[in-house]
Amino acid sequence: MPCLTNEERYQAVGMLRANTPVANVARTFNVTRDTIYRLMNRLQTSGSVQDGPRTGRPRATTPAHVRYIRVLYLRDRLQPATKTAREWPGRRTISAPTVHRRLGAQGLISRRLARHIRLLPRHRRVRLNWARLHR
Q1: 79, 87 in Cβ contact below 8 A?
Q2: Distance in angstroms (rounded) separating the CA atoms of residues 106 and 97
Q3: First-to-final CA distance of the chain
Q4: How do the domains of the chain map onto residue ranges?
Q5: What is the block-wise mean pLDDT of the chain (135 residues), using blocks of 10 residues?
Q6: Local structure of residue 107 (DSSP, 8 states)
Q7: Which DSSP category does 47 fall into?
Q8: Which DSSP helix (H) or strand (E) runs through 37?
Q9: Class assignment of domain 6-46?
Q10: Is the torsion defined by CA of 12, 15, 16, 17 positive or negative?
């Protein structure tokens, strides 16, 4: 139930103990009735309304790392995420998508390398002739 804060969970439990209908409690906190029922079940089984531990892979970066990525980006806004990831200090390596996601979470947009075909002078001439012909 991550949509309710701890304070809201305790308020909901208080309302339920005051014999407020589940539908009214759910409407008050703008959640579904199932959320309130799960909250009641958790309270009855574990005696607590706190979030339980979650499974999943631990994050590759700490909040300090995220601040460092932000500082690096703000120093050189044209540096792509791949370069930041390649030059990452320490034992653990991070990927360019990780850098891109961490910057995006802070409202910053990392640059992506421009990949395009290099045109030789002969190619430019041919394209210009084609454009003039089809104008």
Answers
A1: no
A2: 14
A3: 62
A4: 6-46, 63-105
A5: 80 93 93 92 88 80 91 90 86 89 91 79 94 94
A6: T
A7: S
A8: helix 33-46
A9: mainly alpha
A10: positive
